[in-house]
Structure formats: C-alpha cells, structure tokens
Amino acid sequence: MNEVWEEVKNRVQSEIPDQSFALWIKPTTLLERRDDTLVVGCPNKFSRNWIQENYLPLLEKRLAQIGSPSFRISLEIRPHTPEPPGPGIEHDSRQMALPHVRRRGLMTARWLKNNLTFDRFVVGKCNEFAYSVSRSLSTGGGMPYTPLLMLANTGLGKSHLTQAIGHAILSRDPESRVCYVTAEDFVNEMVFSLKNNQIEEFKSKYRRSCDVLLLEEAHFLSGKEKMQQEMEYTLDALANDRKTIIFTSGMLPKDIPNLSKGMESRMTSGIITTMDRPDYETRVRILEKKAVEKDLSLSDDAFHLLAKHLTRDVRQMESALSCLKAKAELLKERISKGIVMEVIRCHVSEVTGRSPEDIMGLVCRYFNLDSATLASRSRKKAHAYPRNLYAYLCRRHTDATLHEIGRPIDRNHSTVLYASEVIASKVKVDRGVRKQVAFFNERIEKGRP
User: Which of the residues 86, 120, 338, 444 has an alpha carbon 20 to 30 A from that of 181?
Assistant: First the structure.
C-alpha cells in the first residue's frame, strides 16, 4: 500500500502550491492498513491538525480515484525514531540552532485559511467597494489605499477579505513578510514579551520585520492604554516605511470606548469601507456557491426560500446548508420544502412583518409629513431629522439592507449609514431624542407601527 499512498501524494502535488506540499503533504508516510482505513503518519500534532482541516477531503478524493473508493484516511502522529549517531560521533540531544535564518511568508501562529481567497468571495452591492479596494491593494500597484479600515458586523466577510489580501500578496511575492494577527493576539503577545524580557524582539517583529500588517478586531484595544501606545508606535514605523496596513473592526473608531485620539487618527487616516448585510440577489448567489462547496444539490425554489428568510449574515446561511446536508445524509431523505422550512425555523425567529414601508408610515404620521417630502432633497431640520430617524429605526428593527432602506427616501447606502449614525450619536447625548427613539421602539416592537 506504500505505492498507493505515494501515488495519492503525487496527484495532490499538482493541485496545491509547492511550498504547501513540501511543508504538509510530503513528510507524511503510510504507517499501516487497518481494514478499510489507511493510517497515515504526520510529524507532529500541529501538522496532523492542519492536514485534517485543509487537505483530508482532497486526499480521500484522490485515493478513491486510484481505485480505493471504500478506503478512508486516518491521521496519526508518527512516532519519533532518532537516527543512530554515526561512528566516532558522540550523541548529543541538544539541537543546534540555525544561525540567521529568516522566516519567510506568514510570520505568526495565526494561519491564513486556504478557502478564504478572492475567487471564493461573493461580490454584491453590500460589499462591492470593500472588495474592489482590497483587490486593488493586494496587486501592489496603482493607488496607495493604505491604511485600509474595513467596518462590518460579524459574519459579513471582513475576515474573508483580509485573509484574501494576505493570500494574494504571498502568491504575488512569497518573500513578503505578512503578519496576520487579531488585536487580542497582539495584546497577549506583548504581555508575554514583557513578562519574559523579550519586548525588543516583539518590537522588532512588528516594526522592522513586517511588510504587511493584517490587524483583525481592532475594537479589542478598547481601554488598553499601554497596548494602544505600543500599537501607535508600530503603525508609525510601518507607515514611515510605506508598509501595507489593514484594520478590521465592528465599530467606527470614534465609537470604540476609551480609544485614544492617536489610535483613532491612525485608523481613519486612509480608506474606510463598510460591509452591510447581503441583499436578496447576493444571498441567493452566496447560497448557491456555498452549496457547491458542500456538494449539496438544491432546487431553485429552495435557494430562494432560504434567501428570503436567512438575512442576518453568511454564517447563518452556512449553518443552514450544513443542517440540510446532515439531514439529507443521515436521514436518507430528499430535501423537500418541508425540510427546508424546518431548518429555517431553527435559524430565524418568528416573522414580525416589520418593513421599511411600515416604519416610513409611522414616522410620516408622527411628524405629519408625506413620503415625498421625506424623499426630497430638502436639508431643513424638519425634514432631515425624520429622514435620519427613519434610517436608524429601519436598521434596528428590520432585516432590510442599506440599499433597500434607502430606496423609499431616494438615498444611497452610505447616506443611509451616515443618517443612522447621526441618530445613534444624538441618542447618547440628547435626552429628548433618546425619549423619542424609545417611543418609536416601543410602538414598533409591540407591532403597532
């Protein structure tokens, strides 16, 4: 069976990058055959977990193609058997360090996932600008879109684009030193370095040995004064050397509690993009693409039914598709409309019937305006304030996208986002606005718009 495993490795070699094959697949060996299972040895636990997560389905698929469709692969850690020392050489268990060897490529323990690339990202009106800027930045030419700040709630694709940038840069220039790290990892690493007298190595890693900094979840720096100060020095060093910097955050810097003015200024000194919940057409395309990746066959009606109800984020859609696949395989049932609705009910609360049109009617009645006035270009406070309030309430109480909210008032998605943020800011400081918003919230939540 050793020949079989070598043939599997040969076939896989042409399908993945040479560096990935040399690092992960080539060191594996066939340990034994147990009934219908090939036991494959990996050098260490980390290697086993990485292959399990990223390459096992591909390996089993190629194994089936060479005539062993009933076999599966089990990964185990290969026992370490040190080579005996040569004659005249005294055995020394200490491993010599290789002098001055620079690590290439990704320079952090947090790895880029193989499936988070540009070609697997579904582009729609909700994320088109963020995608275009990210793609342009990753090519290395053109206009300097850095630093780049991507704003989005969880599950809307900001991590996908961030990692796609890293993949594209490493594909174009494998010598690039890409550092992909969350703000939490950065903080923990700095604390560890301080405790172990390694702070100079920490500073060198991020300030002098980094070409691309991909910093996720920047809002985690909230309230960490010393960490923010160190990050400011790091960002200044990278900016002075014209390095690439990408931030992601779930909040605007000005809304992150206890964020220093220095950090706020640095995070907003470049391009800022927002990513909204996907609109209906984009949801359909996301579901279709994810279904293909999961090898799941659904009818057009099923896709549209899922897209109609699963409006929160991409993770919600992925979870629903996984549930459908599990039901179909484990229960040996054909995926019917009833099964689709059963899965939807597990992911979505009761339909409330709230819509932008309902909220438009409530706001117009309260302020004694008609919808045409609300959609006009008037900037009078008597017209602009209700318009902003409409946008804020729609974002809070409906699943409509920014584009869908903006259509009745003839505004684009960025204007809707700004209008909503204006009210959110007023709620924090203006008692009158806060009471008024509470009144509208109560009416809408009780189903009396």
Answer: 120
Q: What is the mean pLDDT of each run of 10 residues along the chain (449 residues)?
A: 82 78 82 86 79 87 78 79 41 35 44 85 88 84 70 88 90 87 87 88 86 89 87 89 88 87 89 88 90 87 86 88 85 82 78 72 90 89 92 83 86 87 89 90 70
Beta-sheet pairing, 72-77 with 37-42: parallel
441 membership: H or E segment, kind and range: helix 431-445
Q: CA-to-CA distance for 411 and 405, rounded, in angstroms?
A: 8
**SS3 category, 293:** helix
Instruction: Provide CB contacts within 8 A for 367, sequence distance 6+.
Output: 382, 386
Same domain, 269 and 247: yes
Amino acid at 369: L
In total, how many domains does the chain have?
A: 4
Q: Note the pLDDT of residue 160.
A: 93
| Whole-number Å distance between alpha carbons of 409 and 70 | 60
294 lies in which domain range? 280-347
Q: What is the DSSP letter of 335?
A: -
The two structure tokens encoding residue 146 = 């850095």
Phi-psi region of 100 (alpha: psi -120 to 50; beta: other; left: phi over 0): left
Asked if 218 and 363 sit in the same domain, the reply is no
Q: Are residues 219 and 288 in the same domain?
A: no
Distance from C-alpha of 402 to C-alpha of 371, rounded to nearest angstrom: 18
What is the per-residue DSSP string for 353-409?
---HHHHHHHHHHHHT--HHHHTS----HHHHHHHHHHHHHHHHH----HHHHHGGG
Note whether 299 and 181 are same-domain residues: no
Q: Both 372 and 392 in a single domain?
A: yes
CA distance 235 to 244: 10
